[in-house]
């Protein structure tokens, strides 16, 4: 579709330049500059399309299809266990696979389909090494008799709005489907698929993402993974969401070592410095985030942090948004000490806090899952685009919970 639009523009340019070219050539007796421009444009378009095709062809063998069989309590009307579909990517040649946690949620059996060297599907049972609901990532392992092709995990910082990306996955069970588009936006923090609470910082793309795509790679023009397909707005077209691969890279060591993510916690709630918050706390020119709650006996409380303090920095990094601070604290891990740069009124402070594990009585609750929506609306929140289970493709948001770092 994108190529079609470009070719249409080139055809029009070709027509205009051809109509105007003879007179110029007759007067100057040389080559027609319009023709040279058209040929250069056509060559550029062909090269761009060829690059995307090469990325897709090279990456296909490292993208897997995932089929799950749900627990017997999730049987359909006929009494058969429900099945789910999703995607994943091989990140280590010895069979480690990255996917979305909601793809395998509630699964009793997980089957991975890998392309053989001759291009035929090979199926392997998979075990769950670790999973994390808040970032919606899971690490799986299969035992294959050969070294498997892998994809390189890069960074979402490698692409900007308007850059081309390729998405590969298993939408509706259509294995190894390839779509292409551009990055539409970055840093979407107000997107909560199915009301799920989590550490999300979405990249928006206009490449098609559908149920079954979740867990599949979003690739840049070099064939490196910059994000993982995760959600889709079912009422819109060309509105898909992916989680930056940087988040996956931060949680993968935890998943492999502990089977879960051990998040750093300091026992506070924070808010962005919106006009309402600034007025409520009587702040003057704040630069950072405001502490709205300090939990008794927590690390921050013991360090002397107070409600109304403005956190301006964490270690050497500036703090500008609440969701960024929550992720920075969580990703530091348990046992790490951090230094907060704080302003209390006109007084600057530095507080050293040793991060702890989240107490079980304050751990995040399970995500809220919405049922099927009777009718979708363009303003509704997107649904997760991965398991292919009834209700998820038509899900809508049902609330948003802000976690404490």
Automatic annotation (TrEMBL):
Coiled-coil regions, chain positions: none
PDZ domain location: 264-346
Annotated spans, Disordered: 362-405
UniProt keyword terms in alphabetical order: Hydrolase, Protease, Signal
SUPFAM superfamilies associated with the record: PDZ domain-like, Trypsin-like serine proteases
Signal peptide coordinates: 1-23
Family to which this protein belongs: Belongs to the peptidase S1C family.
UniProt-recorded name of the protein: PDZ domain-containing protein
């Amino acid at each position: 579709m994108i190529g079609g639009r470009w070719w249409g523009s080139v055809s029009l340019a070709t027509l205009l330049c051809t109509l105007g070219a003879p007179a110029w050539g007759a007067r100057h007796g040389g080559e027609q500059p319009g023709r040279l421009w058209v040929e250069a444009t056509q060559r550029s378009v062909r090269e761009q399309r060829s690059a995307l095709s090469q990325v897709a062809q090279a990456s296909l063998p490292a993208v897997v299809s995932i089929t799950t069989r749900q627990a017997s309590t999730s049987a359909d009307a006929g009494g058969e266990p429900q099945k789910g579909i999703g995607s994943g990517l091989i990140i280590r040649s010895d069979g480690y696979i990255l996917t979305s946690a909601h793809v395998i949620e509630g699964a009793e059996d997980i089957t991975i389909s890998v392309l053989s060297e001759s291009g035929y599907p090979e199926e392997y049972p998979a075990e769950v090494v670790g999973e994390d609901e808040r970032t919606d990532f899971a690490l799986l392992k299969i035992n294959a008799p050969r070294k498997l092709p892998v994809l390189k995990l890069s960074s979402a910082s490698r692409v900007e709005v308007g850059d081309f990306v390729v998405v590969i996955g298993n939408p509706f069970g259509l294995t190894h489907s390839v779509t292409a588009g551009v990055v539409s936006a970055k840093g979407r923090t107000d997107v909560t698929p199915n009301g799920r609470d989590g550490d999300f910082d979405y990249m928006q793309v206009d490449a098609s993402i559908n149920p079954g795509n979740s867990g599949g790679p979003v690739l840049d023009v070099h064939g490196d993974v910059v994000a993982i397909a995760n959600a889709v707005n079912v009422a819109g077209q060309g509105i898909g969401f992916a989680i930056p691969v940087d988040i996956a890279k931060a949680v993968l060591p935890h998943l492999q070592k502990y089977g879960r993510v051990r998040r750093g916690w300091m026992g506070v709630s924070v808010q962005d410095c919106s006009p309402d918050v600034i007025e409520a706390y009587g702040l003057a020119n704040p630069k950072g985030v405001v502490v709205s709650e300090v939990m008794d006996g927590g690390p921050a409380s013991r360090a002397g942090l107070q409600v109304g303090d403005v956190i301006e920095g964490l270690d050497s990094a500036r703090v500008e948004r609440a969701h960024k601070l929550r992720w920075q604290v969580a990703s530091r891990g348990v046992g790490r000490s951090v230094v907060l740069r704080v302003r209390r009124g006109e007084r600057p402070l530095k507080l050293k806090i040793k991060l702890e594990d989240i107490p079980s009585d304050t751990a995040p609750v399970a995500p809220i899952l919405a049922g099927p929506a009777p009718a979708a609306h363009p303003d509704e929140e997107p649904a997760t685009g991965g398991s292919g289970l009834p209700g998820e493709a038509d899900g809508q948001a049902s609330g948003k919970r802000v976690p404490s770092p």
